[in-house]
Amino acid sequence: MKGAIFFSGKYGSTAQYANWIGDVTGLRVFDVNTVDADPSKYDFLVLGSSVMFYKLTINKWVKANIHGIMTKPVILFTVSGASGGPKLDGWIADCLPKDLVSRMQHSALRGRMDPNELSWGLRLIMRIGALLNPDPQSSKEERGGFDYVDKSSIEPILTMVAQIQTSEAAS
Question: Which long-range contacts link 123-127 to residues 24+ away (Cβ below 8 Å)?
């Protein structure tokens, strides 16, 4: 079964995870902003997306390629400062078609944010958000940044890929 990884990221964490998954699985890796990022050529898909301001950065690409996505097994990994849970699940549900969300597998990965890499406008928004955030740890991270990128966190995704490949080989 032929699969591929398609990712959309902003500052490099999502690309790092996509490349690690590709290195281990042998799946081709595509940045969705390249012309050859065509999901219709593959039997299953691993989609990776940064989460910025409660939105998936891969959202527009998914909608533009929905016909090449809906008939295939899909694994989504999201990368953000947020841990997995109801809040992140809600953001995903708000961004992607409900039919896709209901049948895909999801893994939430923690990313990194270096305030020095942000534009001045984004840094300002993060500072304001930090002032309004009632969670002291999150507020601190919004001001000073964080780095939770961890190669071992891709293990659940590797397991999902292996399960898809095994189930199709048995068919």
Answer: none
Q: What angle do CA 59, 28, 25 make, to 5 degrees?
A: 105
CB 8 within 8 A of CB 33: yes
Rounded Cα–Cα distance for residues 49 and 162 (Å): 21
Secondary structure (3-state) at 55: strand
Find tokens 């699985």 and name the residue.
Answer: 25
> pLDDT tens-digit profile of 33-61?
988 889 999 999 999 999 988 899 999 99
What distance in Å separates the CA atoms of residue 47 and residue 97, rounded to the nearest whole number? 14
| pTM of the complete model | 0.90
Token digits of residue 160: 């999902």
Return d(Cα 121, Cα 155) in angstroms, integer.
36
Partner residues linked to 107 by β-bridges: 77
* Nearest-10 Cα torsion for 14, 157, 51, 128: -90
Quote the CA–CA distance of 57 and 61 in Å, as a whole number: 8
